[in-house]
């Protein structure tokens, strides 16, 4: 079976500047993938191409085995799309709009009613079903957007910034909703909020300036791309002696004093310094009170990757 | 087909839930009623005089004196009204961003265009249907030959279709409803008046201009004549502008 999304050498130019250049990635069936990057990195462009709104300048994107441009109708049948701005017809009520969306998406007329009731329930829209779209709050707009994407049970959901502009309690609700959907659908969602992605997604694709800079699970990214390990120590002993001794240990990049008796050791990549450090401290007769490996947060990884990218230009 | 129907239903819901339809409909019927009234009053005045004037009497014909000029005036009112009915159709989808939903649903471009065009045509036909009251009212008081009246209505329907297809095209060009309305109105006026050249006998182009003119082709219908070349003119006019609209929609696929 082909993967749900296959992207090869995807490039899109707006005028002379590329919004994305030569993206390659795959998303397997049932995966929840986060598309992470700063504003203007090319997330929305990529998702619009996948949704079939416009074609790439070059390269191919396939959904469910169908080319997003050449077999656009078939590809679009397999997806539900929530655009970033959640455009809704202001003069239709929620139910009228969902009826239109259901017919447009080819829901069979016999199942139309049941299908609309299902998404209204799943997205918690019962209380606003007869409200005009134009007078909905931002949180409800987002849910209506999600509801139309869910109609006809598409195997793939493309969600562009699903939680942007919502208040914290709404964000929690929408995230919960997305988590519940994950079982039946493949989900690709974009975000520039890190905790969101690390909470929701099994895999993160980090994109910056139109290029993929990393793609892995949130945990692996934190581990592998953290540029070495960090170990915090609490040692009872004379600091002026401790610092040079720690620095002299092979594999240590830097040592800093972070408080009274507290030290932070930065090691080089892929090396566990903890046994060596423990032995060293004990051998010098100091008291080792605490020894802890610190993982890099995804946030730091992200900043690292993004600033690394920008460095050559400045 | 279900896609076309889905769009028709949606567009009609929007038409009937926004004030623009009611306002244009109200003023259209107000103007139509006024013209019908004044034509009828003039006709009855002449009829009284015709009683004393044997030469005038045979020329008195309700179709020629009431309905033909009425249809002529209604057609002008429609030309002013149609841009108001079509300006929203595609421009608003683009401005509000709903185009992004519409064009990511599994609908072909033709489906979208036909849905929007047919919805506008239904609204137009509905307004047209209301004016049949005039003829019915007239027929209740006098004898009326329904043949040329119905031909006139066929002409108005085809004329409306042509104007709506051009209006839809204008709406596909821009995100701004006002610009869409202005472009549609200007082009419609041009297609209406272009035939005047032939009366001036200005140049060798006169024949071509006359053939392009909506007025020339519409005149036959309200005279009570269905000519194949007029039918072909209006149908190909409609198809041509729907086709241009499709091309314009497709351009999003290759423009940067």
UniProtKB/TrEMBL annotation, chain B:
GO CC field: plasma membrane
Primary localization class, coarse: membrane
A Pfam family it matches: ABC2_membrane_2
Membrane topology classification: Multi-pass membrane protein
Signal peptide: none
Record field: transmembrane: 12-37, 66-86, 117-137, 149-170, 177-194, 230-249
Keyword terms, alphabetized: Cell membrane, Membrane, Transmembrane, Transmembrane helix
Keyword Membrane tagged: yes
Domain of life of the source: Bacteria
MF (Gene Ontology): ABC-type transporter activity
Compartments where located: Cell membrane
Protein name from the UniProt record: ABC transporter permease
Species for this entry: Desulfobacca acetoxidans
Lineage: Bacteria, Pseudomonadati, Thermodesulfobacteriota, Desulfobaccia, Desulfobaccales
């Amino acid at each position: 079976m082909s993967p749900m999304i296959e992207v090869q050498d995807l490039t899109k130019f707006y005028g002379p500047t590329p919004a994305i250049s030569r993206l390659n990635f795959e998303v397997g069936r049932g995966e929840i993938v986060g598309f992470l990057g700063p504003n203007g990195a090319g997330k929305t462009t990529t998702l619009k191409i996948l949704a079939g709104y416009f074609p790439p300048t070059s390269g191919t994107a396939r959904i469910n085995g169908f080319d997003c441009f050449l077999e656009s109708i078939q590809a679009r049948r397999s997806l539900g799309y929530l655009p970033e701005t959640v455009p809704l017809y202001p003069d239709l009520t929620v139910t009228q709009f969902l009826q239109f969306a259901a017919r447009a998406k080819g829901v069979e007329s016999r199942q139309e009613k049941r299908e609309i009731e299902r998404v209204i329930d799943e997205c918690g829209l019962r209380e606003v079903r007869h409200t005009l779209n134009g007078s909905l709050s931002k949180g409800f707009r987002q849910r209506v957007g999600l509801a139309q994407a869910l109609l006809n049970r598409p195997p793939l959901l493309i969600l562009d910034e699903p939680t942007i502009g919502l208040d914290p309690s709404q964000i929690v609700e929408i995230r919960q909703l997305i988590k519940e959907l994950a079982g039946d659908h493949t989900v690709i969602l974009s975000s520039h909020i890190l905790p969101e992605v690390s909470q929701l997604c099994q895999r993160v694709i980090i994109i910056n300036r139109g290029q993929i800079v990393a793609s892995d699970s949130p945990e692996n990214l934190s581990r592998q791309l953290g540029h070495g390990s960090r170990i915090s120590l609490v040692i009872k002993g004379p600091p002026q002696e401790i610092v040079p001794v720690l620095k002299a240990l092979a594999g240590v990049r830097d040592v800093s004093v972070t408080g009274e008796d507290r030290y932070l050791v930065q090691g080089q990549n892929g090396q566990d310094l903890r046994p060596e450090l423990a032995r060293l401290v004990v051998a010098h007769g100091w008291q080792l009170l605490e020894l802890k490996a610190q993982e890099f947060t995804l946030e730091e990884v992200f900043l690292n990757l993004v600033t690394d990218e920008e460095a050559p230009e400045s | 087909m279900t896609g076309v129907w889905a769009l028709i239903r949606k567009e009609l819901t929007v038409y009937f839930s926004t004030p623009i339809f009611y306002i244009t409909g109200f003023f259209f019927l107000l103007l139509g009623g006024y013209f019908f009234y004044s034509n009828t009053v003039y006709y009855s005045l002449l009829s009284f005089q015709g009683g004393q004037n044997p030469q005038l009497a045979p020329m008195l014909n309700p179709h020629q004196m009431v309905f033909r000029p009425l249809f002529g005036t209604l057609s002008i009112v429609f030309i002013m009204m149609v841009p108001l009915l079509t300006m929203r159709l595609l421009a608003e989808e683009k401005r509000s961003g709903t185009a992004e939903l519409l064009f990511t649903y599994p609908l072909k471009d033709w489906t979208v265009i036909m849905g929007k065009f047919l919805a506008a045509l239904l609204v137009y036909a509905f307004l047209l249907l209301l004016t049949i009251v005039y003829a019915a009212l007239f027929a209740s008081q006098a004898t009326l030959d329904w043949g040329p009246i119905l031909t006139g209505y066929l002409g108005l329907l085809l004329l409306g279709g042509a104007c709506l297809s051009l209006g839809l095209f204008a709406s596909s060009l821009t995100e701004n409803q006002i610009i869409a309305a202005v472009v549609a109105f200007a082009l419609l006026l041009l297609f209406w008046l272009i035939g005047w050249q032939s009366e001036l006998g200005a140049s060798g182009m006169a024949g071509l201009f006359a053939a392009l003119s909506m007025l020339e082709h519409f005149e036959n219908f309200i005279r009570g004549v269905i000519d194949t070349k007029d039918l072909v003119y209006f149908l190909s006019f409609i198809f041509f502008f729907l086709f241009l609209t499709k091309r314009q929609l497709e351009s999003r696929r290759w423009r940067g």
